[in-house]
Amino acid sequence: MPRFDLPLAELETYSPTIAAPDDFDDFWAATLAESRAAGGAPVVVPVETPLTTIEAYDVTFPGFGGDPVKAWLLVPAGARHPLPAVVEFNGYGGGRGLPFERLGWASAGYAHLFMDTRGQGSMWGAGGETPDPHGTGPSSSGFMTRGIEDPADYYYRRVFTDAVRAVDAVRTLPQVDPARVAVAGGSQGGGIALAAAGLCDDLVAVLPDVPFLCHFERAVGLTDRDPYQEVVRYLSVHRGADERVFRTLSYFDGANLATRATAPALFSVALMDFTCPPSTVFAAFNRYGATDKAIEVYTHNDHEGGQAYQWQAQARFLRDRV
């Protein structure tokens, strides 16, 4: 598979101007205030699993507009609380699955909250359980163009708010030290983690792995893979809607949200990634607001990136900051 994007030396300095709307910060402040005002507290129920070294809990917390969002909480059995926590977000189309599918963070001594992505969970994996009760106007298949006519209606407004409220929720749990919370995720989950980084205060670390949802306008014109192709298909039908569509997307661009982040961050990028092109990842990394940041580069990988090697790097990075 050939490399198709900029050479690494150019990627390392690639920091494009990506316009953020004048009301960007006000938009997000109002969105989060509205959802927090809806109130509610997480409901945490122990679940029985075959695991003997990890305790599992079914969590339901209030997300966007107070909508119930599901998650799994895993903690080391018998651990002394409170623990540092990792809030993790999932890849595109997947759900929270089963509670024993992701054991790494809890096995490493963390409280691990894995958030269900609303409306997703039926493309791969073991399923999701969080509906998205909000309708949208015309859209193409998938989630990328749902509500794309207006940022107030856009699908990822709800998802990003869910992510912030997941951090809010985990900080209230007795198993968790609220001053030691990190966010993580791969692909879509990496893009959601970047959103949380830009919208949450006082995170100890951010771990976006081959992040999606960055530098939309370049991605849409550079790769022929889904999910970015969902936007192409929409625009091929809704001719002349480019300006309106990319204005909506600018409120949700990981490269814009990254500029507002202050927590230490470890990114990853794969130079043969046709799903999340390298320049889109570097656009977010180079614009990331904290000086304590690093990026792992996988020179001969597609969207799978570093996989277990990246998790190991994340574990080391986080250990040094908690």
From TrEMBL:
Give the organism's phylogenetic lineage.
Answer: Bacteria, Bacillati, Actinomycetota, Actinomycetes, Micrococcales
Listed name of the protein: Acetylxylan esterase
One matching Pfam family, short form?
AXE1
Which InterPro entries does the entry mention? AB_hydrolase_fold (IPR029058), AXE1_dom (IPR008391), CE7 (IPR039069)
Q: Which residues form a coiled coil?
A: none
Question: Which organism does this record belong to?
Answer: Microbacterium alkaliflavum
UniProt domain Acetyl xylan esterase: residue ranges: 1-319
